[in-house]
Amino acid sequence: MPTLVSHPDEVKVISRRFGQGAADIEKYIELDGYKAVQKAIAEGPEKMPAWIIDTMKASGLRGRGGAGFPTGLKWSFVPKQSEKPKYVLVNGDESEPGTCKDHVIFLEDPHAVIEGTMIAGLAIGSKMGFIYLRGEYRYLLKIMEKAVADAYAKGFLGKNIFGSGLDFDVVTQSGAGAYEVGEESALMESLEGKRGVPRIKPPFPAVVGLYGGPTVINNAETIASAPHILLMGGEAYAKIGSERNGGTRLFGISGHVERPGVYELPMGYNLKKAIYDVAGGIKDGKKLKAVVPGGSSCPVLLPEEIDVGLDFDQMGKAGTMLGSGGIVVLDETVSIVEFALRTIAFYQHESCGWCIPCREGTDWIKKTLTRVYNGGGSKKDVANVQYLAENMMGRTFCPLGDAAAMPTLGFVKKFRKEFEDYIEGNKAGTPIITVQQLVGAGH
Amino acid sequence: MPDVKFTVDGKQLTAPAGTLLIEACKSAGIEIPAFCYYPGLSLQAACRMCVVRIEKMPKLQTACTTPVAEGMVVTSESPEIAQARKSTLQLLLGNHPLDCPVCDAGGECELQDMTFKYGAGESLYAEAKNHREEQKWSPVVYFDRPRCILCYRCVRMCGEGMDVFALGIQNRGSSAVIAPNVPAQMSPDHLAHVDCEQCGMCIDACPVGALTSGAYRYKTRPWEMNHVTTVCTHCGDGCKTTLGVRSTSDGAEIVRGDNRDKSGINGDFLCNKGRYAFDFANAPERITAPLIRQTDGRFKEVSWEEAFTHAGRKLRELRDARGGQSIGVLGGNRLTNEEAYLLQKFARTVLGTNNIDHHRTADYVTFAQTLAEQKDRTASWRDTQTIPAALIVGGDPTNQAPGTAWNLRTDVRLNKARLYIANTAEIKLRRQAKAFLQLAPYGYGALAAYLAGDEAVAQSAAADANALTSFRDAVKAEEKLLILIGSELRGTDLRRLIEFGLTIPGARFALLSDYVNSRGAADMGLLPDMLPGFTPVSAPGAFAEQNLPTAPGLDLLEIFEAAGRGELSALYVVNSNPIARYSVDPAALKNTFVVVQEMFFTETAKLADVVLPAANLYEKGGSVTNSYGDLQLVQKAGDRAGVRSDFEMIVRVADKMGADIKSLVPFGKAQPGLRADMGQSRGAQAGEADRHAVWLTANNLEPKLSPFDPWAILDEIQRLVPGYNLLRLQLLSGNDQHLEPEAAASAVTNRRDLVLPSGDTLFTSGTLGRFSATLNETRQYQTGEPLIQIHTAAEFGS
User: Fold this and answer.
1) Predicted TM-score of the model (pTM)
2) B401 and B296 within one domain
3) Would residue B244 count as lying in a domain?
4) B208 and B153 part of one domain
5) Is the ipTM of this structure higher than 0.90?
6) Cβ of A397 and B45 within 8 Å?
7) What's B380-405 look like in SS3?
């Protein structure tokens, strides 16, 4: 179990119950639990859906999974009338390397996820929610399952929730261990018991989603933010963050820092401060070499590029992405060649195989970088890797191809000289190691 | 759907809203490349080849998933798009084995074509390729994983198109692999296999050489074959098939059957028989020399001249001594229309008998008579893919007429057609049915009576009275219903069902039979009481000019009864095996002179006095009519030294009997006193046709026709046979044309037991199927039944 960290710059909204035993339903209730959903119900059945959606819109909350789509707007896309049942789907398939924020929520505040699911359900007129956890989070599934059972035992879930006359059920589901299922339509396929491959869009889930019904699918952190937003008010939440980036966010800072951990910082908080102040700076006084700012799919930043605000827009301007909030800090001892190989090895292993550019591109780049890493590279290989990554970008069926191509492009562009030096210096050849040895069994 | 206007490459186009961009472009002559897109199957968008630039969209879009929209501005070719396609090909080719020189698909491979067009000629790939060993999934399906580009066409074709679901995907990413439904762990030989209908549609759909045919692989290159489009000889659907033919030392060998250009009546479809079961033509058991039975009972190989002379002389003697009424004639279901017509004309005008019949696999006589004076009441096969609703009573299309089953499944999938199925067995097509009515054993007659209004027979029709009532009510509420009838319904039952159907507005009918020209055999008058076009022998109409006998003759069963009584002097059998089919006691024929035109030593041929080795449907030209009445062109593909077409052999026997050949086959202008030049009957010789042309020209005759040319008799069929007013241009263009029967209405008189369904499955095909090694092997593989032992000519001496 991770040790919880803390820093004075943190603004504790989502994390305010962390470390207080809120996985226990009594403790959760004591800490204002299930008040938000009751507040929504108090608006009355007529006004409630619009009130929730308006509050969410006013909060400026943008999807915490990585794409940053405004949550209130997403909920408003669901048609009011539908022949098929509507669903709320919580994406807890947190698989992006470097990301560990949803993990803490499931561990420390599972009822916030349930309550958020209920709120989303009330907003769109759904009677059923699914909480989907990645296969590797089986131990967290137990916590979630207990939380759901406790909520049922209290009568918070099921028929006539909080006397509203509305029913709402929640089901938990574990994945089978595929990164691809983090993509929303692949997650729905998986939940329906099929291979976890993405669907053709349009139609989008808000119109045709799970089992063909209109579906709201949100990241677990997004959903867990909803109760807090309803309690504090949309405007108050928006004020915490930067322009067009409402509220706070959980950032998982890992790698070569003194105090790694998950910190809740306001949107727009400076990345350099996050690394040097919040996380205590580079470990053992070493020099910073690079930062992967939002999970492994985000293009790498050089030390001179990290004086930038952590929100969707500022990170975009900096040529990278806010992503899933997993900040990976690399010190001077890291070989970028090895890091690039580890990254592409992950995406090669996780590519679902559906479309050609991703399936073949990740495999090809991995093979080439493995050869380069083992000392058999030539300068042409660097250009070739760049060519392949450029031709994967924007051409794949789902964003996984981009997620593999973007960091690769970042590494070979920003660290080209390191690649070339590595290739030059290794002409003699080093012992051949396999990728299995490099990244561990199972890959 | 209203039309929308949009622009592609500067061209203003219009298409119905909702049309996929790739299809809209195709209609306008703009080809957008794709691997995974396959019309009619679910969308995949996996290959990324069809990417185009659409204005206001940030990324390239796939044309296969984008519906056209009003005002859409599209660029289908540009340097950006060409680069996208080129790089996709480079990615594909990276891991591709590039074994084109030995790949079956080489020369007709979509990956080759695309590479040629987008020029991914230089390989950047310097890594080890992902290799997997080739797998034999069945006797006819092989899988080479390294060549597979994972377009999933085969998976969708098998599941959506065939409703078999034998293929799926295993693993993911670059390890993803098409996998069959019998994994190695569950297989007795520890190898992966497919348990399926063995249709080979997956092979047809495969854009590359990943799936190859066990019947064809590594035999030749596509460009070394002649590709002849003709009609499959097996079931009553009459699919167009393209036969790949190569010259050999003793003729032209058929090495492949497929559905190459998909332009035929069958569209995409071809079943296992059409695709693989052509090899009976190459079977070593074929008879390739005329045989005459010696006094010791053994056969002796003789010259053609001797065989024809012997048969002609004996038949003439018997006719003159005992009368034409003592001779019986049996024709086949795999003769061309021209041959069937000629055979009945030969029987009636040369032998002087109406004792002619064929193995009936459906009661077309009643069908035609009941629909007499009705217009537009028969359905063409093409209709089965578009009709809004169908009632299927009896039959099992999946086994009996796989193309019909394919069409109906497609109609349900794409057009939401409603199928109503009534059957005594739970046939596979029920899975697509809106309603399936389980009939009581032998309940077809009762069902027909019940539908016609007789409530009293409900119990005999179906055990579930409620299901029966709601089934009837649902059917009655339909309009434009196709009523597809199996051979279980005959005579009065068939008439009742059709009469019930006629009360439904716009209802149309089709009767399923079992062989490629079962319908044609009936249409062409291989019947004791009917002339061609179901013209009663007692009222010959236009046929009066031929001075035919007017008393009905003996039917097939009566012919053998007469033989048993010693009253049958001669039996002339063409392409039929009644001894095996009708379980006739072979002893019945001991005092009968028997002439048999056959490919193989069948149970019937064994009893013959003269055996004339025959060509099959793949070795001759003409026309055939499928179960639905759709006429199609048959073209000569294969060739085998030592055999002749049934048409030629009938003409030659008639000639040896002293018949006037020009009145039998009107191949030239009538010239008093001019006897037809029959050429030589020694055997096929180079230049024979030329000598004919010289002779015909010298005698002021049409030089292109000879008495052995089936086209010589087509004029007469068009002129005399009711319902066969076909368009020759359509026929010659290879198009199918639907013909409606034009029978005279008259009472049903046929014996029910004359109709004998073949009972063929996907892996049998009457006598012919026994001699297809591939079909046999596939049947054994799929059903576990032993291989059929085939008797060869050698066992009978020579």
Assistant:
1) 0.92
2) no
3) no
4) yes
5) yes
6) yes
7) CHHHHHCCCEEEEECCCHHHHCHHHH
